[in-house]
Amino acid sequence: MPWVKFVFACFLVVSGAALASSASKRPLAVQDCVRTRRVVGRELALSPDGNHVAFVVKAPDVRTNKNNYQVFVRDLRRRQHRENGRILVQSEFVSGLRWLADGIRVAILTREQGQNEIRIVNTLDGKSEVALRNSAQIEEFSISGNGNAIVFVTQFQARDLAARRNAELYGFPVVFGVPSSGPEPEFVLHATKRDTGNATWRSNEVKLTGLGMIKQSSTRRLHSLNLSPDGRQLLLVVMNDYLPPKWESNPLVQRFRELGSNPPLLALVDLATGDIRLAFNAPYRNGVTTWAGDSHAFAVQINSPIDSPEFQQEAESAIKSGEIGRVGHEAPLFVVNRGTMSFSRVLPKLPRVTVGGIPVSWERSDGPMLCRLRDNILVWMTPSGAAWVERSRTGFTLKGNNANYPTVADDRTVVGVSEDPTTPPDLFLYDIKSKSTTLLTDLNPELREVELGGVENLEWKNRYGAHANGFLIKPVGYRVGSRYPLVIITKFWTNSFICDTDYQTAFPPQPLANVGFAVLMAHDPINDRTSAEKLRLEGHPGEMSEAFNWMAMVESAIELLVNRGLVDIERVGLMGFSRTSWKTDFMLTHSDFRFAAASSADSGIYNYGSYWLSNQARTHSASELQMGGPPYGEAFKNWLAYSPAFNAGNVKVPLLMEYTREDANTVSVAHEFYTALRRQGKPAELYYYPLGSHILDKPLERIASLQRNVDWFRFWIQGYEGDTPEYDPEQYSRWRGLRRLTGQLRSR
Q1: pTM for the full model?
Q2: Domain range spanning residue 529?
Q3: Which of 559-573, 577-591, 602-616 has the lowest mean pLDDT?
Q4: Residue 457 pLDDT more than 90?
Q5: What is the total count of domains within the chain?
C-alpha cells in the first residue's frame, strides 16, 4: 500500500507545516510545555459498535496549580472536521476508562478532594451513577460487561492503622533489610455488586486463599485487575513472598531474588470463593491481559512456561542482556482456557508490549482474534485445533510510532495517538476499508503559535563500538557555520512530542533551544538491546561497565558535534534524571571532559550512605550487583573508586541538584554528594520539592523545575541573568556566590 503511505505522509506534512512555519511565531515559554494536553496512558477505548471513542486528556492548569482530567467522547461518524468531542466528566484524577457492553455507558474512577468514586456515566446525556464512594484511596478497579459487578483494591485499612498506632505507642523491632518506617501499607481486594432488586450496591472484602496468602498482610501488592465480562473470575498480578513449586532453582527467579524481590505472579481469582491460583506458570511483568467477550478464555503476553525449553532460552537472553526487570516485555502471546487452564500459543515472541494490549478485539474464545502485531500492523488470528493461524493482516500509518499510547481497533477502524517530536499529540482514525486516515482532534491549537527548534535523528558509536542514538534539537534561528552551546540530556526516549519530556522533572529541551542552545537528547544505551553486548566491558567490577559505556557515549557525541562545526566545545552542559542522574554524577567525578555546567535530578544511588540509609533489601541487592559487593570488606575499594560522593573532589563544574519527595529518605540521600561537594568548595545548588513526586506532576513544580534549569545553564554558559523568579528571589544572588567558587576550581 505505498500510495496510502504517500497520501498520509502528505497529509501529515501539510498538517505539520503550520506548526513548523516560523512566520508570526512567538518564543516558547516553559509554561507552554507544562500546559500541553496529552491523552492519558491507557485511557483510550473504542465503543463495542465502533461508532465512538472515549478518551481521557490531562490538562494542566497553571492558574489553579492542578491537573484537570477530562473524559471526552468523540463520534467517529463525524470526520469532516477536527474536533475533540464532548466532555463527559472533569475531575482532579481519572483512570480505568472502560466501555460497558451496551455501548452507551462508560465506567471510570475519579478522585476529588480525597474522595474516590467509581462512576458509571451515560455518554448520551452525561448523567453519572456513583457505584462506589470511598475515602480510602482506591488504587484501581475493574468492572463486568453489564456493569453490575466491580472489583477494586484499596490501601490503609483499619487493621493496618491499628498496627501503626501500636507501633507508635510501644515501638517495633527493626528487621534487617526491612525499612524501619513501621508496618507497610496493606493492599486489600474488594468486590461490589448491584442488588438488582433495589438498585443498591453492596461491598465486601474478598478473602484470598491460596498462593501462600494465609493472611492478606503477606501481600505487598495487588494490581493489573481484569474482571471477566461475566463478573465471575478476576485476573490480577500478585507480588508477595510465595514462589510456585520448582521455581526456586530457576536462574531467572534467582536473579530476581538477588534484586530483592520475587517475580510477580499472574493469578486467577474465583470471586465466589476467594480461591486464588496461578494463571500461568511463568513470571509476569508489565504485560496486559485480555478476556474473550464470552469470558471462557483470556489472552496474555507472557514468557513461555517456566519448565519449557523456550523459557530457558528467554531467561538466558534476559540475563545476558541485563533486562531482568523487563521480563514479559518481549514475549509470546498465549490464550488460556478458564475452565481447563490449558493454553495455546497464538503468536511467537513479540516486540515490547504496547499499551492497551496485544489483542484489540476478541468476541468468542473459539473465534477470531484481532491482534496488534507491531505498532502499525494488525493481524487476524483464528484457532485451528490446538494452534492458531493467521487469517489476514492490515497495515496502517502511525505517526511517531509511540508505544506509550494504545491503539484500539475493530474490523473497520483503527484509532490511536499521532505525534512526533515536533507535532503535539492528537487522535487519528484509520479506515481499514477505504485505507484513509483522518486526524480527529485538535488538543493543542495554541502550540501552532510558538517557535520550535528543528529536530534531527542522530546516530553514532562510542569508542567501544556500541551503537548510540538520540534527537538533536537545533537552536531556534540556527545558522549553518555557527557554533552553539550544547546541553546533553540523557534518558530513554520515544518519538513523543518534545517540549519538556515525558519525565516532566528538570528537562527543558525546547525552552533551551529557544534561547540559543543546541540540545542532544541522547538515548540511554542500557535500554537498547543492540548495545547489550557492548555494555559488558572487561575490567570493571559488578555492573560498572554500564557507567563507562554511557560516559563514552556522551564523550563521543560531543566529539561528533564539535567536528560537525555545530558545537562550541567550551560551552557544553550535561543533564540527568533518576538513573541517568547517577550517571551524570559519575561522569562529573570520573571523566576528563570539562563541562561548563551540569544538572542532576533525583538519584543519589550507589553512594555509601544510600546503601544503608533505608535498610532495604532491594537497595542492598541492587547496589551490590552494581558495585561488585557491599561497601565493606574486599569490595569497599570499589565503592571508594566509583561512588560519586567519595570522588566529589574531582568535580570541576557547577552542579544543580534537584530532589523530590520520592520517599522519606530521598533528600537525605542527596545530602551525601551535596555535602561532599560544598565541603570541598565546589559550586553546587541543592533544591528540594517537599511535596513533589519523582516525576513532578503539579504545574507550578514543573514550571519552577524547568525554568530553574533554563536559568542555570544560561547563567553559567551564556553569562545571562533573566528576571528574578518570584518564587525564588535570592536565586541569582546565591548563584553569584557560587560563581566566586569557580575561580578556586580553575586555580587547582
Answers
A1: 0.89
A2: 453-747
A3: 602-616
A4: yes
A5: 1
